[in-house]
Design a protein that fits this description.
The structure holds two protein chains of two kinds. By secondary structure, chain A is an all-alpha fold. Chain A is built from ten helices and no strands. In chain A, 81% of the residues lie in helices and 0% in strands. The chains are: A mainly alpha, B mainly alpha.
């Protein structure tokens, strides 16, 4: 385990060191990329000055909205689809091919329908995330031990009670997998669509900085997004692993 | 993919078209084109002179990107599958890259490769290579030990081992990786065109917003969705067959 961590640190440090050397020696010119230590310095200054706070807040709000929407709709829809066999058979081909279809292709269409506000971005984040939640909820519900279902029936729980008190908690570890994916997809959807066309947010600031050759703004923002998404993903993975371990599933 | 599978598929497509017609009746002409109008425009668009150029452009970027993804993905996947330490250390990092909003990396690629085919290809590759690596890695690791032991008893060299044992045993899993990689590479190439490009299907989509040409947007979206859907359906079919045989 220790060895693995050392390996990882060496790889990351190595990449940063190579970039640093290439930038300082001028192999990578200043217009293409700044030296890593400058990026970190600029990021620090940017966060301290607070000039990106509005953009960061906007992106986080929209991501949160997309995430909550995806979770709410996804879990409820998953529970419903699980109850109706025919519905599930019909929707299965949709789920199987869903992630092969570029959801971003719908973005221009959403802009035309809803205008260039927050709605199209939230919708893209929602659309990317919701199917992952549904599929993982279904997967979790499939694996609920029959004895729990029988217990619920013996106690004469109503379908809602049974779902809220027995089946959904029993399926929780798999639903968490869905949550983890939904968080990543909500981020990708919101930032990606801001980047393509929008009027604010981190994605917009990056594309704005790119068109104006402001590397001192662009690279720190990209670094910020990298750090944030990797950190969130790592935290959720740890939580997921712990839940699975507690149930003896891994 | 028997008779029932085909029926479910048809029911689903019918439902989606019905939903589309419903939305059209709800929102009206300004925001949405009806299924019939979109189909008519699609036919006209496909028949137009410039269209073939745009499609070829997208397909070229996508084709090169997918080829590069496959070669790189298989090489890295086999390496990480063989080398336990490297695999354990790097796999979570590859997974973490998957969760990054990769569009934000596109400006870096544009600065590094310049505006054009190379940047598009590179962007397609960073999308497509990840699932191919992950699936290949898992496939190599999960090869049945008895097969590997048999190979060792026969004193196969490492290369022979890959050629005659690991690769054939891993084909179903690797194919799943290729299927997912195919879809993601396509998404990557299209996204690259949507952001900064003067050609290709992604450009046509963004161009539709500029012209406020709803029919063009919907027709191009339809073409992309149908293409991605049909190809992934075929790949899924092959995938199931490979897994059943294995």
């Amino acid at each position: 385990m220790r060895k693995v961590v050392v390996y990882r640190v060496v790889v990351v440090a190595g990449i940063v060191a190579v970039l640093e050397v290439l930038c300082l020696t001028g192999v990578i010119d200043k217009i293409t990329m700044q030296a890593p230590h400058l990026i970190v310095r600029d990021l620090w200054r940017m966060l301290a000055s607070g000039r990106m706070n509005a953009a960061i807040a906007k992106t986080l709000n929209n991501t949160l909205a997309a995430l909550l929407l995806a979770l709410g709709v996804g879990i409820v829809a998953g529970a419903l689809i699980h109850r109706f066999r025919g519905l599930r058979d019909t929707l299965d081909p949709l789920f199987a091919t869903y992630y092969a279809v570029p959801v971003f292709a719908f973005y221009p269409f959403f802009i035309v329908v809803f205008g260039l506000g927050d709605t199209p971005q939230i919708l893209i984040g929602f659309m990317l995330g919701v199917v992952a939640v549904i599929v993982n909820t279904l997967n979790g519900l499939d694996r609920v031990p029959p004895v729990l279902l029988k217990t619920a029936r013996i106690m004469r729980l109503s379908p809602t009670d049974a779902a809220l008190r027995v089946t959904l908690p029993a399926a929780a570890p798999h639903i968490v997998t869905g949550v983890k994916l939904a968080v990543a997809y909500a981020f990708i959807g919101v930032i990606g669509s801001e980047f393509i066309l929008s009027r604010g947010g981190i994605g917009y600031e990056i594309s704005f900085a790119y068109t104006n050759f402001e590397n001192a703004t662009m690279y720190p923002l990209i670094l910020l997004i990298l750090i944030a998404s990797i950190a969130i993903n790592a935290l959720l993975s740890r939580w997921e692993a712990r839940l699975l371990a507690r149930r003896g599933l891994r | 993919m028997n008779c029932r599978g085909a029926r479910n598929m048809l029911v689903m497509v019918a439902l989606l078209v019905a939903l589309w017609q419903g939305l059209y009746l709800w929102f009206g002409d300004v925001a949405l084109a009806s299924p019939v109008a979109t189909l008519r425009y699609t036919v006209k668009l496909i028949g137009s002179e410039s269209f073939a150029g745009h499609v070829l452009d997208t397909l070229r970027a996508f084709g090169i990107a997918f080829a590069v993804s496959v070669v790189m993905g298989l090489l890295i996947g086999f390496w990480l599958g063989f080398d336990r330490l490297s695999g354990d250390a790097l796999e979570p990092m590859v997974v973490a890259v998957y969760a990054i909003p990769k569009l934000t990396l596109y400006p870096i690629l544009l600065l590094a490769f310049g505006l054009g085919l190379a940047a598009k290809v590179a962007f397609g590759v960073i999308h497509g290579v990840i699932p191919i690596i992950l699936f290949t890695l898992a496939a190599v690791r999960n090869t049945k030990p008895i097969l590997i032991k048999t190979g060792r008893v026969m004193k196969l060299s490492r290369l022979q081992m890959v050629r005659w044992i690991l690769f054939p045993a891993a084909i179903p899993e690797i194919f799943t990786g290729l299927r997912v990689g195919f879809a993601l590479t396509l998404i990557g190439s299209l996204l690259a065109e949507m952001f900064a490009s003067q050609r290709g299907l992604g450009f046509l989509l963004m161009n539709g917003i500029g012209l406020h040409n709803v029919e063009q947007i919907m027709a191009v979206t339809l073409i992309i969705v149908v293409f991605a859907g049909v190809v992934s359906w075929i790949l899924l079919y092959v995938d199931h067959r490979l897994h059943r045989r294995a």
